[in-house]
TrEMBL record:
Keyword Metal-binding (UniProt): yes
Pfam families according to UniProt: Copper-bind
Subcellular location, record wording: Periplasm
The protein's name: Azurin
All copies of domain Blue (type 1) copper, residue ranges: 21-147
GO MF term set: copper ion binding; electron transfer activity
Keyword Transcription regulation: no
Keywords, in A-Z order: Copper, Disulfide bond, Electron transport, Metal-binding, Periplasm, Signal, Transport
CDD domains in UniProt: Azurin
Signal sequence coordinates: 1-20
One annotated Gene Ontology cellular component of this protein: periplasmic space
Function: Transfers electrons from cytochrome c551 to cytochrome oxidase.
High-level lineage: Bacteria, Pseudomonadati, Pseudomonadota, Gammaproteobacteria, Pseudomonadales
Organism: Pseudomonas baltica
PANTHER family the record matches: AURACYANIN-B, OUTER MEMBRANE PROTEIN H.8
Length: 149
């Protein structure tokens, strides 16, 4: 009887782990001004979500740097425009810009950065965009973020 109870407990634990939401993702960036992902789905069951940004290119951040910025879709262009004058040390983001939900620093070849954010800041009925705020990169480096069940 004890062995059966242990087996049931192990199976329940294993199936629970298989059903657990993945609350992180890795997004690669390259010298070709591209992200390896064009869409990110975030489970509503995640309390926080982490984005791990990598740069697999060979150019330094001053030449071909990238970051990962999350905002409402309608705010992205304004954030990128306002951030142009902020400079690389501020990740091309205006200090205190409340339209920015989450962001990583600008990275170059071989570098990595991560950001975690509170999923409760997102709404299922809102359109979100992730993008690179390095000047001129928004046109090619962007993707959708959606909440899923």
């Amino acid at each position: 009887m004890f062995a059966k109870a242990v087996a049931v407990s192990v199976l329940a634990l294993a199936s629970g782990q298989l059903l657990a939401a993945e609350c992180s993702t890795t997004v690669d960036s390259t010298d070709q001004m591209t992200f390896g992902s064009k869409a990110i789905e975030i489970s509503k069951s995640c309390k926080t979500f982490t984005v791990n940004l990598t740069h697999s290119g060979s150019l330094p951040k001053e030449v071909m740097g990238h970051n990962w910025v999350l905002s409402k879709e309608d705010d992205a262009r304004g954030i990128a425009m306002d951030g142009m004058s902020a400079g690389i040390d501020n990740s091309y983001l205006k200090k205190g810009d409340e339209r920015v939900i989450a962001y990583t620093k600008v990275i170059g070849a071989g570098e990595k950065d991560s950001v975690s954010f509170d999923v409760s800041k997102l709404s299922a009925d809102q359109k979100y965009l992730f993008f690179c705020s390095f000047p001129g990169h928004l046109a090619m480096m962007k993707g959708a973020v959606t909440l899923v069940d």
